[in-house]
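Q:
Just now I want nothing more than another pair of eyes on a protein record. Here is the record:
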Amino acid sequence: MKAVHLLLIAASALSLTACQIMPLGSTKEVVRRAIYVLPADSSSSPLYVWHGTGTPGPVRVTIDLSQQKAYIFRNNQNIAWSYVATGRSGFRTPTGTFRISEKVVDKRSNKYGSIVNANGVVINGSATAGIHRVPSGGRFVGAKMPYWMRLTGNGVGMHAGPIPHPGSPASHGCIRMPYPMAQKLYAIAPYGTPVTIVP
């Protein structure tokens, strides 16, 4: 695996060198270099690969629950893939085709989060609103869901979040993506973008 990683670094260096020596005014087509991001606890597979935004045109997303991966297409060209974390046992992520119906950069969950006491100290870091008691003077603080892209009317969407074990479900039903990937997808996927979730 280290050999593959070294080959990727060498290929990137050669690509950069070629860009540096290209003469000004050259009409040679520019080749997009993929961005590889490795998980913090892994020395093998990247957490996601981003090839660039592609040529302008319609965007679509396929989420594969069995692989725990998202595939992003633009003009039917694959421009990225990413590990995701979908609904764990008891919190099923629905399958089917949906469309992005809401986009919020700084969304917070109104159902899952933490309970803090009157001094702002977290006393329950895995609370459900309306289920867990909030002490006098305390409050419920919804979990952060940056780059929120709603898919269903009952609160399932795509957003940035932790991928604790790439390849394994971990969420309350939403599709979590690495922060940079969610940010990139949010920028190019307008309202109405189709998202197909397959088993």
Notes: The chain is about 15% helix and 40% strand.
